[in-house]
Amino acid sequence: MTASINFRRDVLPHLIAIIIFLILTAVYFSPVLFEDKGLAQNDILQFRGGAKEIQDFREETGEEALWTNSMFSGMPAYLIQTHYPGDFSGAIHSILTFDLPALAGNIFITLLCAYILFVTLGMSSWLAIIGAIAFAFTSYNIIILEAGHNTKSLTIAYIPMVLAGLIYALRHNLWIGAALFALGLTLNLHFNHLQMTYYMLLLVLVFAVVEIIFAIRNGTFAELLKRGLVLAVAAALAVGVNFGRLYTTAEYSQYSIRGKSELTAPNSGNQIGSGLDRDYAFNWSYGVGETITLLIPDFYGSSSSASLGTDSETYKAFTNMGVPPVQAEQIVEQGLPMYWGPQPGTSGPVYVGAIICFLFVLGIFIVDKRWVSWLVAGTVLSIVLAWGKNFEALNYLMFDYFPAYNKFRAVSSALVIAQIAIPFLGMLALWKLIRGRELKGLDKKLLISGSITAGICALVWLFAGSASFVGASDPQLIQAQFPIDAIRADRESMMRNDAFRSLVFIVLAAGLLYFYLKNKLSATVAIAGVGVLVLVDLWTVDKRYLSTDDFQRNVVSNYFQPTPADQLILQDKDLSYRVINLANPFNDARTSYFHKSVGGYHGAKLRRYQDLIDYHISQNNLEVLRMLNTRYALTGNPQQPVQRVPGPLGNAWFVENVEAVNSPDEEIAALSDFNAAETAVVDVSKFPVEKRSYSADNATIELTEYQPNYLKYQYQAAQPGLVVFSEIYYAAGWQAYLDGQPVEHIRANYVLRAMQVPAGQHTIEFRFTPASYEIGNTISMVCSILLLLVLAGAIFYGIKKKPTEEPIVEKV
């Protein structure tokens, strides 16, 4: 039966919603959209530094480098910046976001995807708008933007669309739902933040378990299985569109710090098999008591660098100490470590909103158990996982044995599940209450839910003074003669004020809904009132962590202004040499913007290179720096900002001896006492080398051409020899050629390339042409075309036909 479209009913409400989302985005990010300002996002600035060589090569040649020598002496570009022309999902994202600038586009797409979720459930447009606001303006979404975690933000943004497609396919129209599911999952995977996708899959797993239980109980398991198989095909299509990105990432991960260490006694402990070290992964674990920040934002003192006003006790204490008022104001405004929780530090709490927490509790009482079961279970799982080392019994078990869980760090990020599940159930509760005003006992359950959440806030407000307010940074503050008692008093004030603040919002929202149930207010007034309160609640907290004052002009250009030290080094026009930034070698990619850096900034550097850092570079092993062709050191000392590193060995050199070892442990230990110019350390159990001594007399080799993915050398030798190259060994893509013919090369000195070469005058080339990229990109293109056909078919079907399937369950 052909469906007729009524513009006012079927189109106009959604256009209004989009306009509202655009207005909210424009207001929050007006400095970006209208004043040409930017945000000093640390991770984005570091990304720009690390990606500079890749981007320059792309602009010059129109090709993908796939490798860069600008960070950690060389690494694949897959997890820095690589384009996959066969993947069309980036173009789809640009269309959905109206190609807005990154910060604005991130929030807009979060609003849009959450709106789609609630509309597919059958909510009115106005309720769906409230739900979208609750999703998008959760404090974590804003805080991660301020830090520069843009891909994490976008991966989270598309989770509601994935859930919308999943639920719609299972409970309403299978084909439209499956198409929406495929689109959402495609875009979720596109941004390649697999940790956030992993948390989404955990929530989906909980949902699947509950659906299976209810399907068996209701006798609909066969129907569920049929729909599940269609969704599996849709998921495979989404994976196919992103196959290039996923394939290269999977290939690289086994060689990165996410993979298994080859050393039997790694420098850092608690590593079980492959993956990250346990201590490293659990360093940022949310405190058990800290969970209350979901309801009361500054329960643990805001952030590790929070601004205070002139009405604060700290400001008054500084002035009483004789500090001039202007200087005291600058000190408190620049930020102080007000956070006193168990994490090493934080940019702010995860706050989902006092009203949303209240509605979540209400949902437990009034929403159908089929929804409550998986949303509450998902929330509890999220909170427990975020506790990390503070709940060892489950979390160490998960880390050691649950598939791929040990690939991820900062387990506090698991709260992303809660920040999805809590608003989800909260909005279902609001929907149920608005639709069911005549249902018996709603007013009582509303009062109970309000009493629980408001009661917690009231207790915190009344008894805040019983907490210690002692933070890990306090000894440093005392040593610096900061007024620690005043700082602790301000921490108490922050807790008390926010507890009262949350109490007020809960009372106001509960009051509106109570008067609605008692027929004192219309549904329109109640919905509008709650919506405004939710927006004001979240918006004002968000502004604490990302305000208009945080935006600046020329952020990128100012950050990457070459210093006199950079300019001095750049006068050296040799094709390739390396620089080490001694001031901050392994958490800085600014150096990579100008130079080929021994260090860098990346969460997935090569495992062997990390070992080299731990055992040798951080121990100032000069021979290791020489073999990496480190020519200059940035000292950070204004008196002598640049130093020449003694005796760099160049791009390649002939050695006289092979020191044969039989394991990675022996290989890395041998670098502690060897002459890199004369000796190559080779693990002969992996790379058999029969000849152990060579003549390097009168043998010369020179790098004559350089590109990130291509190196050309000319050499001349009177006898066969062994050449060591100051380039990182990576077998999954680098191919060596001698006079145009493929030849084998080996690994030497734990991380470098080496090659046995014949006598005479010859040409050596290295080309980086990983098969994974070519195969993956081809599969991505085929699946992208299929996805477009599926979406076109779903749109056509949705316009022309009305759904004929009966929902598996409609009750909320």
List keywords for this structure.
alpha+beta, 5-stranded antiparallel β-sheet, 31 helices, transmembrane, YfhO family protein, membrane, transmembrane helix
* Helical fraction: 40-55%
Distance between the termini: 28 Å
Beta-strand portion reads 5-15%
- Rg: 29 Å
Q: Output mean pLDDT.
A: 93
Q: Biggest sheet, in brief?
A: 5 strands, antiparallel
Shape: globular
Number of helices in the DSSP assignment: 31
Structural class: alpha+beta
**Would you identify the regions where 5 or more consecutive residues have pLDDT less than 50?**
803-810
How do the strands of the widest beta sheet line up side by side?
12-13-19-15-16
Task: Give me the count of strands.
Answer: 19
Keywords: Membrane, Transmembrane, Transmembrane helix
Transmembrane segments: 12-34, 100-119, 126-145, 151-169, 174-191, 197-216, 228-247, 348-366, 371-388, 408-434, 446-464, 499-517, 524-541, 779-799
Protein name: YfhO family protein
Pfam families: YfhO (PF09586)
Layout of strands and helices, then pairs:
Blueprint: H1 7-28, H2 30-34, E1 38-39, H3 42-61, E2 67-68, E3 75-76, H4 89-96, H5 102-121, H6 125-136, H7 139-147, H8 150-157, H9 159-171, H10 174-190, H11 194-218, H12 221-241, H13 243-253, H14 278-281, H15 313-320, H16 325-334, H17 354-366, H18 369-387, H19 392-401, H20 415-435, H21 442-463, H22 474-479, H23 484-517, H24 523-545, E4 551-552, H25 555-559, H26 564-570, E5 578-581, H27 590-594, E6 596-597, H28 607-615, H29 622-627, E7 630-634, E8 642-644, E9 652-655, E10 657-661, H30 664-670, E11 679-683, E12 700-707, E13 710-717, E14 721-728, E15 734-738, E16 741-743, E17 746-748, E18 752-757, E19 760-768, H31 771-800
Parallel strand pairs: 5-6, 5-7, 10-11
Antiparallel strand pairs: 1-4, 2-3, 7-8, 9-14, 12-13, 13-19, 14-18, 15-16, 15-19, 17-18
Helix pairs in contact: 1-5, 5-6, 5-8, 5-9, 6-20, 6-24, 7-8, 7-24, 8-10, 9-10, 10-12, 10-31, 11-12, 11-18, 12-31, 13-31, 15-16, 15-23, 17-20, 17-21, 18-20, 21-23, 23-24
